[in-house]
């Protein structure tokens, strides 16, 4: 048989061929691609060797290509899953260890105690600067004090924090 016969069979059975492939690959675009690839391979094959049953040959070629596609997809997913799992094992946890969490909690409590012992204005200056992100001139204006006083209160608060952490680290 000839390429003309293949063309007639392909055009008349194209929807059936795509449907057959779709049942294997479960993707419409892939099914169309495989049907076209099947046509091209059969066209090459019949130029080299005569084929008696072109329709059966076309459908068998399509089925084989569909099964090959599924095998490749399955192998690719298996490799990707293995790589994902291996990669996940190498990624360090971002969560602190129980020991680190305890140390952080102790440090926070020590800082809270140190700040609690400061005069009220120094605590307020510290909070406005470090928590609210205000500049020293803005704090001075808001509290009605000089920028130099803001600087001194911050120096006092920061010194108390450093001392509290150092005391904790010496234990």
Automatic annotation (TrEMBL):
Any Gene Ontology CC annotation: DNA-directed RNA polymerase complex
SUPFAM superfamilies: Sigma2 domain of RNA polymerase sigma factors, Sigma3 and sigma4 domains of RNA polymerase sigma factors
Transcription recorded as keyword: yes
Keywords annotated in UniProt: DNA-directed RNA polymerase, Sigma factor, Transcription, Transcription regulation
Biological processes annotated in GO: DNA-templated transcription initiation
Homology family: Belongs to the sigma-70 factor family. ECF subfamily.
PANTHER family: RNA POLYMERASE ECF-TYPE SIGMA FACTO, RNA POLYMERASE SIGMA FACTOR FECI-RELATED
Annotated protein name in UniProt: DNA-directed RNA polymerase sigma-70 factor
Originating species: Methylopila jiangsuensis
Native organism taxonomy: Bacteria, Pseudomonadati, Pseudomonadota, Alphaproteobacteria, Hyphomicrobiales
């Amino acid at each position: 048989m000839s390429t003309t016969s293949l063309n007639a069979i392909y055009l008349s059975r194209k929807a059936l061929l795509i449907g057959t492939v779709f049942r294997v690959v479960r993707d419409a675009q892939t099914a169309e691609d495989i049907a076209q690839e099947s046509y091209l391979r059969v066209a090459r094959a019949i130029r080299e060797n005569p084929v008696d049953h072109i329709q059966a040959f076309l459908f068998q070629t399509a089925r084989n290509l569909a099964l090959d596609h599924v095998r490749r997809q399955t192998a690719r997913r298996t490799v990707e899953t293995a790589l994902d799992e291996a990669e996940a094992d190498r990624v360090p946890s971002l969560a602190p260890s129980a020991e680190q969490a305890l140390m952080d909690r102790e440090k926070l409590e020590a800082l809270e105690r140190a700040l609690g012992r400061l005069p009220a204005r120094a605590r307020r200056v510290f909070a406005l600067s470090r928590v609210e992100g205000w500049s020293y001139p803005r704090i001075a204006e808001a509290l009605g004090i000089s920028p130099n006083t803001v600087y001194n209160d911050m120096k006092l608060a920061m010194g108390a924090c450093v001392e509290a952490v150092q005391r904790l680290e010496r234990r």
